[in-house]
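Researcher: Let's continue the batch. This sequence belongs to Modifier of rudimentary (Mod(R)) protein, and it's 66 residues. Same format as the previous ones, please.
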Amino acid sequence: MGGSGLWQISEGWFLESMNKTKEESEKLHKQLLEKEIDITNFSQKHKKLRVDYHLTHLAASTSFSS
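Model: Same format as before. Here are the structure tokens for Modifier of rudimentary (Mod(R)) protein:
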């Protein structure tokens, strides 16, 4: 079916995007622990990453629900 190929591409994109955001969050945590970034900047950047992650997850969940 033609639609299933599009579904796989889209699902892969969502998973890749979520994994990238998770990796960026881990790097940010490392920067905080190593005192390369202050708590104010960490908080702002971390909040943005978490919002991006959850919005992507929500979009994937609603796009691929049965």
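Researcher: Any comment?
Model: Helices lie at 2-33, 39-63.
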